[in-house]
Amino acid sequence: MAFAGLFCPGDGADADIQTISVSAQYQGNGIGQGLLDLLINAAIERNAPAIFLEVRAENEQARALYAKNGFTQISVRKNYYQNARPHNKRSDAIIMQKILGAAHE
Ligand SMILES: CC(C)(COP(=O)(O)OP(=O)(O)OC[C@H]1O[C@@H](n2cnc3c(N)ncnc32)[C@H](O)[C@@H]1OP(=O)(O)O)[C@@H](O)C(=O)NCCC(=O)NCCS
User: Fold this and answer.
1) Per-residue pLDDT reduced to its tens digit, 81-98
2) Which of 1, 4, 43, 76 has the fewest Cβ atoms within 10 Å of its own Cβ atom?
3) Catalytic residue status for 54
């Protein structure tokens, strides 16, 4: 139905959102927001200074979710994703960051 994953080793290291996914039939009901809240709170509990993620440039739903939650674009990886269709088409990856730690305030 839905899953999410966070890389957050602690000891002052930055956190990285590995994935967030909600099954199509359950999207638009606040589940993605709830999962993102859990990941951000887990990173804060482990004292991560910042949390990062990468998202496909065309993924408007996910980019809206992240922007709404204070993530800002810091970089673009050109042609990062390879798509099965159309053949050989590639997509850029948008790198986003949210500052969490007091050290950055
Ligand atoms: C991105 C995703 C996780 C959002 O999950 P969701 O449960 O549908 O999202 P929510 O219902 O919690 O909505 C939270 C916010 O996401 C954004 N959003 C969700 N659906 C959207 C849509 N169809 N169009 C634009 N923005 C959308 C909005 O900012 C929304 O806030 P709002 O309702 O106040 O406008 C979901 O669309 C998904 O699983 N997509 C496929 C997998 C994916 O792309 N994962 C991200 C990889 S980086």
Assistant:
1) 988 777 778 999 999 999
2) 1
3) yes
Instruction: Map 28-70 to HEC letters.
Output: CCCHHHHHHHHHHHHHHHCCCCEEEEEEECCCHHHHHHHHHCC
**Segment 20-51, tens digit of pLDDT:** 999 999 999 999 999 999 999 999 999 999 99
Is 80 among the residues known to form the active site?
Answer: no
Q: Is 20 in the pocket of ligand 1 (CB under 6 A)?
A: yes
Distance 12 CA to ligand 1 centre (A): 29
Domains in the chain with CATH codes: 2-104 (3.40.630.30)
The reported pTM is 0.94
Q: Which of 19, 39, 56 is nearest to 98 (CA)?
A: 39
